Amino acid sequence: MQYIDRIYGKFEITEPVILELINCPSLQRLKEISQYGYYKHFGNFRPNRFEHSVGVFLLLRKYNTSLKEQIAGLIHDVSHAAFSHCIDYVFDEGSEKEHNHQDNIFENFIQKTKIPVILQKHGFDLEYILNDKNFPLKEKDLPDLCADRIDYVLRDAVILGELSQSGAREFINNLSVINNCWVFKNKKSAENFANLFLAMNQKHYASFQVGKMFRTTGDYFRYAHKKGYVQENDFYKTDNFLLTEVKKHHNKDSELRKLFDRMDGKINIHRNSKNYNATVYVKSRMVNPSFLDKKITKLSEVNQNWAKIIKNELKPKKYFLKFER
Predict the structure, then answer these.
(1) Quick check: pTM over 0.85?
(2) CATH number of the domain bearing residue 26
(3) 61 is in which domain, residue-wise?
(4) By C-alpha distance, which of 136, 192, 130 is closest to 164?
(5) What is the dihedral sign for C-alpha 163, 167, 169, 174?
(6) Would you say residue 188 lies in a domain?
(7) Which residues of the chain, if any, have pLDDT below 70?
(8) Long-range contacts for 230-239 (Cβ within 8 Å, ≥24 apart)?
(9) CA contacts within 13 A on the Cβ side of 53
(10) Nearest CA to 139 among 127, 120, 152?
């Protein structure tokens, strides 16, 4: 199978287990799951979870990690619900501040898919694959770098026009793996990556615009679920399926239609901490890259200002929303 990725270029994928996983329904479903929520808020910004999942796999493959780690990277997002992290604003199992609903249900969700059978068929232990402690390059806690974090920020930056494809590839080429850690080859690359991540977080990931999207999309689908217009399992199908099911009830429910108009940008929403109808928290992300300078050094160790930025940016952002209607 030949695969062309906007960041990593052209790859030939031949491993039977990878090919079978890519083609299984759980991975294919991710093609219809938007990366960051209700897409209308982002114009033409419509990456999907499938592209990112394969991207994480390709990044790990490029740096010659074990096939087990590549598998873990490929399947890491299969439990995302429709409209991705919007689910954290619908069900109580998630958290507005942490965006952890997908993580909380991950193992149970995997068990209901064909993935365990595929892994067993090819001789891989599911329990080992699902344990993130076995794969430090794939996943680490903020603010450390991991393949997931590297891929999504470069991919989103390219799609949003914040970075050229050649710029993204330059970052990738300036990375190395040392002692199971992602390490930039020099301080300049680490600083540039850190500043890119900061800009993406402030302008996109934790912005007021995204906060509006999460609050209004969450309110819309929470209301629809409470009214019985959709069932819990409907959230684990596709964006289009879920939205289509709820829209069937617009004509008979004026409150539902109002919530949709808020979500769809037809009702103005202002930021007003003194006169507001609702609040919303948004998870905030920041990284502290390491680089090689005789020894492995974290950016915060040589830049005290960066240490302060990390501390401030990792706090969830809270916004106050005033609806015109």
Answers:
(1) yes
(2) 1.10.3210.10
(3) 2-207+284-320
(4) 192
(5) negative
(6) yes
(7) 41-45
(8) 232/91, 234/82, 235/81, 235/82, 235/87, 235/90, 235/91, 236/79, 236/81, 236/82, 236/109, 237/29, 237/82, 238/29, 238/32, 238/33, 238/82, 239/32, 239/33, 239/34, 239/39, 239/82, 239/83
(9) 26
(10) 152
